[in-house]
């Protein structure tokens, strides 16, 4: 190799957002990350204030239960096979609906963003449908698809479909003109440009759509169960309500929140793996 | 280290009639922009230029004179309004596989490693992966990026990214290398270093280079000939032979002759009343 007598430019230390910064992130440095103790502290303060505030003012158990009774009820539920039956029903409905809704949005979004005439024709309808409050369709779906699994899956699919669709369309449009021009100079076809630039550029948007979509899918399943069902966490929520078991209701709400949180973190984890270059890209929240 | 530039020549070889003296031919080139609602603007007018194979040509001119337009036409990105443009005997109507391009920004794909970025043209043109992986490796070594192959672009400095961009432009062994102000975004020190580096790459790979630049000293330092464009509509004001000994180092720029060239080009800019 020919050597130049100029000193080689040293490799600059990677930017703060760069990946090699990982080890530092693992360290529990309370001074640099005050949220590590602030977040749990707020939780403890709120729960304590709730526990003793409720007792002090003398609010009835069936209006606002004590956190301790909620925990007790939750413990009881978790030991109950019937509860797990409800849990799996809702999980199944939400996941199936999510996969169908998000899959359809991916296909339609790709189709719309790639073909101008399709976009021009369909966009007004999509905008019109988007303004329809989707939960208002739940009674209709129960009439159409019955009290079983299907109506809830359809509800979950419809409700997770739109935010995903908007993100897919926007994401596939987000590719840098410079990068497309670069590929064009080297002779890339439309398909190659799609695969090499448009799709990866859309990934952060797609993950934003998935993130919202999974939470919406759980919402859709629960709303579907409210309207007409014989099982599921939404059904359980209504049952506890009828029985004035407010602590039991709160316990179910806690379980639903945890479901949403777990799904959210799974998607974030996938995003960090697959769209590692764009952790801070701004995407639409829909 | 000499890059084996001959391996793929057979493929990029022009029709036998093409002389190495007219590797790039620009003949009466006109370019007019016709926006729908306003009057057309003439960007380039009657450009005539012939470039030898292996020659290093720079294009300078005041802002808005159409230098980048000229390069985009050569790259097949922008249609011409009149005249003819041929590279290695082929009419340029769309991007040719014989052309490599370096852009103002490195324009690397952030989701690909440096090595995979360099391989982009070979992948697009479906060239033999094994041979071109080897070539990509050689090029990266030549620009001093060995050890950085598996890094991602954001882990490299701007100068290193631009060097990766140069490797990418060369990986498919193009007959012509087009460069659009490739060092404009770099600081002065890195820029000088990159100029020396570019000369070395050019000498080792024997490409034909057309460089658009804002910097008159850079054009003089690097080129065999400097093409000076006039303000809009861009016409060729002068084509200046740079008769400085090769191989050159930065010291050559303090010579009297280099100073005369720089002055002479600058006078065109002053006459046009534009300080670039």
Automatic annotation (TrEMBL), chain A:
User: Is Transmembrane helix a UniProt keyword of this protein?
Assistant: yes
Domain (ABC transmembrane type-1): residue spans on this chain: 83-271
Recorded hits in SUPFAM superfamilies, A to Z, give:
MetI-like
* Keywords for this protein: Cell membrane, Membrane, Transmembrane, Transmembrane helix, Transport
Residue ranges of the TM segments: 36-58, 94-113, 125-147, 153-172, 202-227, 247-267
User: Mainly resides where?
Assistant: membrane
Q: Where is this region: Disordered?
A: 1-24
Query: What's a Pfam family in this record?
Result: BPD_transp_1
Q: Where is this protein localized, as stated in its record?
A: Cell membrane
Annotated membrane topology is: Multi-pass membrane protein
> InterPro entries in the record, alphabetically?
MetI-like, MetI-like_sf
**Family per record:** Belongs to the binding-protein-dependent transport system permease family.
User: Which protein, by its recorded name, is this?
Assistant: NitT/TauT family transport system permease protein
TrEMBL record, chain B:
- What's the domain of life for this entry? Bacteria
Q: Pfam families of this UniProt entry?
A: ABC_tran
InterPro entries from the xrefs?
A: AAA+_ATPase, ABC_transporter-like_ATP-bd, ABC_transporter-like_CS, ABC_transporter_ATP-bind, P-loop_NTPase
Presence of keyword ATP-binding: yes
Keywords per UniProt: ATP-binding, Nucleotide-binding, Transport
Output the SUPFAM superfamilies linked to this UniProt entry.
Answer: P-loop containing nucleoside triphosphate hydrolases
Q: Which residues form the ABC transporter domain?
A: 24-256
Classification via CDD domains = ABC_NrtD_SsuB_transporters (cd03293)
One annotated GO molecular function is:
ATP binding
Protein known as: ABC transporter ATP-binding protein
């Amino acid at each position: 190799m020919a050597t130049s007598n100029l000193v080689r430019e040293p490799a600059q230390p990677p930017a703060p957002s760069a990946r090699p910064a990982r080890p530092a992130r693992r360290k529990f440095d309370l001074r640099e990350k005050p949220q590590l103790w602030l977040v749990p502290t707020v939780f403890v303060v709120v729960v304590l204030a709730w526990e003793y505030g409720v007792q002090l003012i003398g609010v009835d158990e069936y209006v606002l239960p004590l956190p301790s009774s909620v925990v007790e009820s939750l413990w009881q539920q978790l030991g109950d096979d019937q509860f797990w039956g409800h849990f799996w029903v809702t999980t199944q409905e939400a996941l199936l609906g999510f996969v169908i809704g998000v899959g359809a949005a991916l296909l339609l979004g790709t189709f719309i963003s790639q073909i101008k005439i399709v976009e021009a024709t369909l966009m007004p309808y999509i905008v019109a449908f988007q303004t329809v409050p989707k939960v208002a369709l739940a009674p209709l779906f129960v009439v159409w698809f019955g009290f079983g699994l299907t109506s809830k899956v359809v509800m979950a699919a419809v409700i997770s479909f739109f935010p995903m669709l908007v993100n897919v369309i926007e994401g596939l449009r987000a590719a840098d003109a410079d990068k497309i021009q670069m590929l064009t100079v080297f002779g890339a076809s439309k398909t190659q440009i799609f695969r090499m630039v448009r799709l990866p550029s859309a990934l952060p948007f797609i993950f934003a759509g998935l993130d919202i979509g999974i939470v919406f899918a759980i919402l859709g399943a629960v709303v579907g169960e409210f309207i007409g069902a014989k099982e599921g966490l939404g059904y359980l929520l209504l049952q506890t309500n009828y029985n004035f078991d407010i602590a039991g209701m709160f316990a179910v709400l806690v379980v639903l929140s945890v479901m949403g949180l777990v799904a959210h973190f799974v998607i974030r984890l996938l995003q960090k793996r697959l769209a590692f270059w764009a952790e801070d890209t701004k995407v639409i929240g829909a | 280290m000499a890059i084996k530039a001959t391996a793929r020549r057979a493929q990029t070889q022009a029709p036998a009639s093409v002389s190495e003296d007219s590797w790039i031919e620009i003949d009466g080139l006109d370019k007019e922009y016709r926006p729908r609602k306003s009057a057309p603007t003439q960007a380039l007018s009657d450009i005539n230029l012939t470039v030898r194979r292996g020659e290093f040509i720079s294009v300078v001119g005041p802002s808005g004179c159409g230098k980048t337009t000229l390069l985009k036409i050569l790259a097949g990105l922008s249609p011409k309004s009149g005249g003819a443009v041929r590279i290695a005997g082929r009419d340029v109507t769309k991007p040719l596989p014989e052309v490599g391009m370096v852009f103002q920004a490195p324009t690397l794909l952030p989701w690909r490693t440096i090595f995979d970025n360099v391989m982009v043209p070979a992948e697009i043109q479906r060239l033999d992966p094994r041979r071109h992986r080897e070539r990509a490796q050689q090029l990266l070594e030549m620009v001093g990026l060995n050890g950085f192959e598996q890094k991602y672009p954001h882990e490299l400095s701007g100068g290193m990214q631009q060097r990766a961009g140069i490797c990418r432009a060369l990986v498919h062994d193009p007959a012509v290398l087009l460069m659009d102000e490739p060092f404009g975004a770099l600081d002065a020190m890195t820029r000088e270093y990159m100029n020396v580096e570019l000369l070395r790459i050019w000498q080792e790979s024997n490409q034909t280079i057309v460089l658009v630049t804002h910097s008159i000293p850079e054009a003089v330092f690097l080129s065999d000939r400097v093409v000076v464009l006039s303000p809009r509509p861009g016409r060729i004001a002068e084509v200046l032979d740079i008769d400085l000994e090769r191989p050159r180092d930065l010291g050559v720029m303090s010579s009297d002759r280099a100073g005369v060239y720089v002055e002479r080009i600058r006078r065109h800019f002053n006459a046009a009343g534009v300080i670039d």
